[in-house]
TrEMBL record, chains A, B:
It catalyses: glycine + O2 + H2O = glyoxylate + H2O2 + NH4(+). GO terms for molecular function: flavin adenine dinucleotide binding; glycine oxidase activity. The lineage of its organism: Bacteria, Bacillati, Actinomycetota, Actinomycetes, Pseudonocardiales. It comes from the Bacteria. Its EC number is 1.4.3.19. GO terms for biological process: thiamine biosynthetic process. Residues 7-347 form the FAD dependent oxidoreductase domain. GO terms for cellular component: cytoplasm. This is glycine oxidase. InterPro entries: FAD-dep_OxRdtase, FAD/NAD-bd_sf, Gly_oxidase_ThiO.
Length: 371, 371
C-alpha cells in the first residue's frame, strides 16, 4: 500500500478509535498513536447518547449534529458487535427530573424548545416518574421523559473499538505524540511517524499538539463516580436519570451488570485531574436527592477526566492544513458523535462533501475562512 | 534449629509482623502465613496511637494496656527504624473537638475521667484550637488537647516491619490458612505447615480459623478515605483531630507528605468489605464540619477494612491450647498495641510472667478458667 494511503490517528479514545476503524475499513493503512489506547476521557464517560436532553435554545447546531449521529448509532453498534464486540447500547431512554421550581422552569423551557423542533419529550408527574423508576426520591417534583435519548457502556464500547481496529489491520504505536505536522507525528522520543495524512483526535490535549488548535480546545475537568448495586439495596434504575441540584447537573446512567455511573462535575481548571473531596461530596449528595437508595450502593471508583471543550460546544471536524485533519473538541458528546465523526473523516480523506450538520463543525468557522 | 523452636505466625498484619519480628529476634525460627502480607486491616488504618482520647469510663483495662504499649512505642519505633525503616512516628499530639453541646458534654465526661486517672488532657477554647490548627472550622466550639496521643504512618510501619522480619530471618508463606491446630497450620491447598507453636494473629478472620475464637472475634467494618493537600488549598493540620458529628466518630490524621487520613465508620455487618456511597458521603460531610478546607483536597483512596472486635474491646493475647497462642481482637488498637503484644508473645513462648495489663487480655477470661 502506497504512502498516499497512510493515515496516522493521534489519540486512541472513542473518537480516535472510531475514526481509525472506519478509515481502515475504507482501505487506508492506519496507525494510532496513543500511550494508553482506550484510556482517555471516554474511558471515564457516563455513556449518555442524549442529544435531546443535552440541548438548549441557541445550540441548535449541536442538537442537529447529535441527532444525526444518534440516528447512526443502532447501525454503528450492530456493525461493531460483529467486528469487535457488543458496546452495550441501551434503549430504555432518559428521564430529566426537576427537584425545585427553578428546575421545573428549566424543564419547561427545554420542553418548549423541543416541541418547536418537533422532538419527542413527554411531561411526567412525580407519580408517573415513580411508576417508571421506583427509586426516585420524594424530592422529585416532575420530569420529562425522552425515550429517544439512549446510553452505551463506554468501556465495552472502547474495548470493542480497540478489537475492531486490530481486526481491521490498524496498528498501535503506544507512545506519546509531542508535535504534529501535516504528514508527520513527532513522538516523545523524537522519532517521527510519517504518513500522507494525520488525524488529530487527542481530545483535551489537541491544543497542545498543534498551534491552530491551541486557542480552540480547552480541558474541561469532569469528576465521575462508579457505583454498584448491592444485595438488600434498591435495584438500579433502568433508564438514565438526569437532574440539576442547586444548578449542578447530575446524571445517573445504569449498566446491564448493576453498575450505575454518577457524573459529573464541569470545571474550568486547566490540566488538573485530581478528584476533590468536595466534588465527590457534591455528586453523592446531589444524586441522593434524585435516588436516595444509592447511599447503600458500593462506591467502586472515583475518577476525573478532561473533556475537550470548544468555544461554541460544537466539535472541530475538518481540515486545518493539507495533510492535517482534526476530530476533537467533542466536549461531553464524544461517544454520541463517534459514528458521524468517523464517517466525516472518511469523507474528508476521499474528498467527498460533508452533510450540512457536520460542515457546521468545520474549524474554519473560527478563522473567517470560507468553508 | 530444632522443631521445638519453630513458630508459625498466621497473619501478616501489624500484629503478626510485630510478633514475628520479636520472636525471630528472640532466637526462634519463624514463618508467617499470609496470602498478602502487610495488606490486612492495618494497611487501611488511620495510624492513631491514642489510648487517652480512645478511652471511656468502664474501659480502664483498655486504657491501661494502651498506655503501657504507647510508652513502649518510641523505643519500638527507633529499633524498627534501624532494623527495617522509619515508621513515621509523629509526636504532635491529638485534639478532640466538640461541635455541639452534646459533644461538649462528652468531652467533659472524658476530661473528668482522665483527670481522675491523672492523665494529661487540657481544655481548649475555640480560639485556642484555631491558634493551634488554623483550618479548624467555625462550627467547632471547644476541645481537649491530649499531647501524649500520637500517630504513626501505618503503611510505612508495615513496610518497615516486613523488611525487619525478612532481615531477622522470618520466612513468608504466601498462602491462606484454612485450619489451625496446635503445632500445625493447614493451608488452602491442603498442605500442612508444622511447628512447635502456632500464633494466630489473623485479625477478623481469626474466628474462622479456630473454634475457640469463633464466639470471641467478630469483624467490625471500617470505611476510610485518604486525602491529599493540594496547591491553593489550606495546609493539612499538624495534629490528629478527632470529633463526633451526629454521634458518628470522625478522625483526621496527617502524614508528613501532605496526606490526610479520614476515618472511619464502625459497622457490624459481617465480612462485608464494600465501601458504600453513604459512608463516603458521611465521612466527607462530617470531616468538613471539623476542617472545611478538605473540600479542596484530592480524594486519593476509598477503602474498607475489617477490624477484629472482641466482646469487651480488650484484645485476646494468650494461650488457648498447648502449642496454640492467639494475638487478635485488637479492634481499633492494633497499631497501638503492636509493641506490647509482640513482647507478650515472646514472654509466653519463654514461659515468663506477663505484666498485669497484658494478663487482662488473656482469652481465658471468657471461659471462666483461672488465669
Amino acid at each position: 500500500m502506497g504512502h498516499e494511503r497512510a493515515v496516522v490517528v493521534v489519540g486512541g479514545g472513542v473518537i480516535g478509535l472510531s475514526v481509525a476503524w472506519a478509515v481502515a475499513d475504507a482501505g487506508y493503512s492506519v496507525r494510532v498513536v496513543d500511550p494508553t489506547p482506550t484510556r482517555g476521557a471516554s474511558w471515564l464517560a457516563g455513556g449518555m447518547l442524549a442529544p435531546v436532553t443535552e440541548s438548549w435554545p441557541g445550540e441548535e447546531h449541536v442538537l442537529e449534529l447529535g441527532s444525526s449521529s444518534l440516528a447512526a448509532w443502532p447501525d454503528f453498534a450492530s456493525r461493531l458487535t460483529a467486528a469487535g464486540g457488543d458496546p452495550g447500547l441501551r434503549l430504555e431512554g432518559t428521564l430529566a427530573v426537576a427537584l425545585d421550581s427553578a428546575d421545573v422552569g428549566t424543564l419547561d423551557v427545554l420542553a418548549e424548545f423541543l416541541r418547536g423542533l418537533g422532538r419527542e419529550a413527554q411531561h411526567r408527574t412525580a407519580r408517573e416518574l415513580r411508576a417508571m423508576e421506583p427509586g426516585i426520591g420524594p424530592g422529585v417534583r416532575s420530569g420529562l421523559h425522552v425515550p429517544g435519548d439512549l446510553a452505551v457502556d463506554n468501556r465495552a464500547l472502547l474495548t470493542a473499538l480497540h478489537t475492531a481496529c486490530r481486526r481491521s489491520g490498524v496498528e498501535f504505536v503506544t507512545a506519546s505524540a509531542r508535535e504534529i505536522h501535516p504528514g508527520a507525528v513527532v513522538l516523545a522520543d523524537e522519532s517521527t511517524v510519517e504518513c500522507a495524512v494525520v488525524v488529530l483526535a487527542a481530545g483535551a490535549w489537541s491544543g497542545r499538539l498543534h498551534p491552530a488548535l491551541e486557542p480552540l480546545v480547552r480541558p474541561v475537568k469532569g469528576e465521575i463516580l462508579r457505583l454498584h448495586g448491592r444485595r438488600g439495596a434498591l435495584p438500579v434504575p433502568t433508564r438514565t436519570i438526569r437532574a440539576h441540584v442547586e444548578s449542578r447537573p447530575v446524571y445517573l446512567v445504569p449498566r446491564a451488570d448493576g453498575e450505575l455511573i454518577l457524573g459529573a462535575t464541569q470545571l474550568e481548571v486547566g490540566f488538573d485531574e485530581s478528584v476533590t473531596a468536595g466534588a465527590v461530596r457534591d455528586l453523592l449528595r446531589d444524586a441522593e436527592q434524585v435516588l436516595p437508595g444509592i447511599a447503600e450502593y458500593a462506591l467502586t471508583e472515583t475518577a476525573a477526566g478532561l473533556r475537550s471543550g470548544s468555544p461554541d460546544n460544537l466539535p472541530l471536524i475538518g481540515e486545518v492544513a493539507p495533510g492535517l485533519l482534526v476530530a476533537t473538541g467533542h466536549h461531553r458528546n464524544g461517544l454520541l458523535l463517534a459514528p458521524v465523526t468517523a464517517d466525516a473523516v472518511v469523507a474528508l480523506l476521499r474528498g467527498e462533501d460533508l452533510p450540512d450538520a457536520v460542515r457546521a463543525a468545520d474549524p474554519a468557522r473560527f478563522s473567517g475562512r470560507d468553508t
